[in-house]
Structures are given as C-alpha cells and as structure tokens.
C-alpha cells in the first residue's frame, strides 16, 4: 500500500468521524474485500463473513473518532475483523453441527479424485494450510495473503512480535513438511 493511499485512508477516517457518508463509501469500497477474505478464512462460512463486513464497518462508522493513527487503517480494520470473527466463532461453537459443517469435514481416505487433487500444487497448499493450527493459519494468512509486517500482525492478533515470529517459523516448518508429504518438494518461501 502506498503512503498516499495510507494517508488518504486516514483522511477518510477523519471525515467519517465527522459523519461524512461518502468517505465511508470510499473506505468500504477500498477495504470490504480484504475484510471479507480475512473474516472468511477465520469463520469458514460465507454468510457469517458477509455479516462480519457489516459489523466491522458499522464499528468503523461509530468508532472513527477514536482512531488514533498509531497503525495503518487496514491494520485497524483487520483487528476489528479478527475480534468480530472470534466472537462469532464462540457463539457458533455452542450451535449444533449443521449440514454445511458436516459436509466440510474431509474424508481422509484416498480415492482417485483425491489422488488427482494432490498433484495440484494450489489444492495441496490449501489443504496443508487447513491442517495448521488456527493460531498458525492466522499468522500465515496475515503475513502472506494480507502482506502485513510482523509488527502489524502482533498488533492485530494482540501478541508480542517474538511470538508472531515463533508461530511463523513453526507454521512454515509444518507447511514444508505437509507439502513434502503431499508430494510437493518445493519448500515454503
């Protein structure tokens, strides 16, 4: 993200704090896909992820005046998204296992279709990512898919930078092992 865009995000937040609806629309247009993707990776449910977008931007509308600019606006948005997603997951944990969740449980037995998919690098990588612990998956998602720095990840997740580095190290090691086991010799970057 360029410094100009970051500055204009901050300007948008200041205008939103003054009740500027157009600034809210611009900020939403710029960041709603990122918020959705991050939320979806955490909750793994499209409807809940869609609901998260609304909740996150409603919070932005209400809390814009409290934004202090100590981090990038995108970092602030992802931190709000993470908090909302974890709250949604806690609520959902108490709900019964629904059909969608039951269908999402992987059948680990190899059949011809699974064997073909294993040869596809991106499918294998996706599978390997889902095998990581939620803590490791979250760090990998923020660093590699959202291009956040270790410092920004620490702020979003609310843990020390050294913990982020440790989790990233072990996540990459685990991914490399999983990819090798899936028949992909290329290591994780």
CATH fold-level assignment of the largest domain: Rna Polymerase Sigma Factor, Chain: A
Please provide the count of β strands.
0
Helix content: over 70%
General form: elongated
Question: What is the CA-atom radius of gyration, in angstroms?
Answer: 19 Å
Structural class: mainly alpha
Name the assembly state.
single chain
CATH superfamily (homologous) name of the largest domain = RNA polymerase sigma factor, region 2, helix turn helix motif
Mean of residue pLDDT values: 82
Describe this structure in words.
Belongs to the sigma-70 factor family. ECF subfamily. This is RNA polymerase subunit sigma. Pfam families: Sigma70_r2, Sigma70_r4_2. InterPro entries: RNA_pol_sigma-70-like, RNA_pol_sigma-70_dom, RNA_pol_sigma70_r2, RNA_pol_sigma70_r4_t2, RNA_pol_sigma_r2, RNA_pol_sigma_r3/r4-like, WH-like_DNA-bd_sf. Keywords: Sigma factor, Transcription, Transcription regulation. By secondary structure, the protein is mainly α. The protein folds into 2 domains: 100 residues, RNA polymerase sigma factor, region 2, helix turn helix motif (Rna Polymerase Sigma Factor, Chain: A); 72 residues, Arc Repressor Mutant, subunit A (Orthogonal Bundle), CATH 1.10.10. Helices cover 76% and strands 0% of the residues. Helix 2 packs across helix 4. The protein is elongated and about 55 Å long. It starts with a helix and ends in an 8-residue tail after the last helix. The relative contact order is 0.10.
């Amino acid at each position: 993200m360029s410094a100009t865009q970051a500055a204009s995000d901050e300007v948008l937040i200041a205008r939103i704090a003054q009740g500027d609806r157009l600034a809210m629309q611009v900020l939403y247009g710029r960041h709603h896909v990122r918020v959705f993707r991050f939320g979806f990776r955490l909750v793994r449910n499209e409807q809940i992820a869609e609901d998260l977008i609304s909740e996150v931007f409603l919070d932005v509308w209400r809390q814009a005046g409290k934004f202090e600019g100590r981090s990038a606006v995108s970092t602030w948005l992802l931190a709000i998204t993470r908090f909302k997603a974890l709250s949604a997951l806690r609520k959902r944990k108490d709900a019964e296992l629904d059909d969608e969740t039951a269908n999402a449980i992987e059948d680990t037995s190899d059949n011809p279709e699974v064997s073909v998919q294993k040869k596809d690098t991106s499918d294998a990588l996706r599978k390997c990512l889902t095998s990581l612990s939620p803590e490791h998956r979250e760090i990998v998602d923020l660093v590699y898919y959202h291009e956040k720095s270790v410092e920004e990840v620490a702020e979003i997740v609310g843990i020390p930078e050294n913990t982020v580095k440790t989790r990233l190290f072990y996540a990459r090691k685990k991914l490399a092992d999983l990819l090798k086991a899936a028949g992909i010799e290329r290591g994780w970057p």
